[in-house]
Design goal:
Strand order of the largest sheet: 12-11-9-10-13
Number of helices: 14
Shape: globular
CATH architecture of the largest domain: Up-down Bundle
Distance between the termini: 41 Å
Structural class: alpha+beta
Helix content: 40-55%
Radius of gyration: 24 Å
Number of domains: 3
CATH topology of the largest domain: Glutathione S-transferase Yfyf (Class Pi), Chain A, domain 2
Bound molecules: glutathione
Order of helices and strands: EEHEHEEHEEEHHEHEHEEHHHHHHHE
Length: 420
Amino acid sequence: MIASTYCFSQEGNITINQDKHITVLLDLKKEMNKNEADSERYKIQVYSGNRSGAYEAQKEFSSSFGDWNPSMQYETPNFKIWAGNFRTRLESDRALKKIKKKQSMWKGECFVFDERVSVGHGLLPGQHELCRCCREPLPPGAKASDMFELGVSCPRCHDHTSEVQKNGARERQKQWEIAKARHMNHIGTLQRQERVAALLPADAPVLYSFRRCPYAMRARLALLSCGIRCELREIALSQKPESMLAVSPKGTVPVLVLKDQVLEESLDIINWALHQSDPQSWSTAGTATHQDAVALVHQCDSEFKQHLDRYKYPNRYDLPDGLANRQQGALFLSQLNVKLSQTACLMGPAWCWVDAAIAPFVRQFARTDRAWFDAQAWKPLQNWLTSFEESETYAEVMHKYKVWHQGAKPVSYPATPSMN
Ligand SMILES: N[C@@H](CCC(=O)N[C@@H](CS)C(=O)NCC(=O)O)C(=O)O
């Protein structure tokens, strides 16, 4: 990159000949910044309350501070408006200062947060912790209250969440503690990622992936089970990297780039991985139930996935709600439940590729309305899903990586040196 500056002090003219790539790089950097994991950023909560209040606050806020992209989030029991995505505390504090007191018509206190910490309006001393459940500032003395449970409830939200929701929060907290105990930073510090990257073989396969994509999850599960370490490139679906599209123009994840071939289908990746080595005996090939296994996964990927998408995103399909599709999807889940009431896993006593291929989709379905899912008479299915979500494997598979960009230092999947 070359940038040259000529100053003509006499005339007071300055000509800057800027390499055209600089603008492109700056745009790219801006985009990267936007995509970086929110958990590493500071945001400002400007509203917390009911839905209509949230819309109102969002509208009002956008008219003055549209650049800070106020977005609506739902965290039981409140709708919240979060604005900005600031890299440093200083930046967010400056932004907070600009949010005038007049806007305190918004219910509650405006504050900056980076997961756990907040400050009050106008930078008055107001440092306090947030409840990890409702993310509202903890009232004084909250921690001594019977209604306080770390990660689960505080006196403010205790009566607004059901026991099922509290149980969900307990699980989340437990996962977080397990990860912490294993020194597995949820966001993965750079130094740590670099250390693990050193474990990558020179010709490691490259896996383009997206953390929450169920197809990518199943591929990562298989790669982990088969002991295949890859260079992981986390992508943003809204901005797929050129290098990925160059090898796989269809633009879906996962994509596994090998020395001599590119695998663009999650099931092909699973097959390939199982052919390399199968230390956990995940393969059903050659067994009497192989055809059933393939048929079950096919049913998941076709009918069930269609219902899942419509249940989850009815708006995208012009549906008033997703309830009919929930009912249809539930037929498949009942079928799985019957299987799981006979054996611990879908194809027998041990977890195999079929469980890995289907569990990420059941997870998505369950999370669309956890209370509803938990209320169904599907104990075996619920236990199967919970033990998956509580496993170390799951924690590894769901490790958070920064969005990859061309030129970034390679990062390893798995992110934990001891895994595989
Ligand atoms: N049949 C493919 C489906 C993969 C797929 O649809 N992945 C989604 C993410 S969950 C995707 O990449 N969609 C592209 C997009 O949303 O732009 C596979 O099994 O790998």
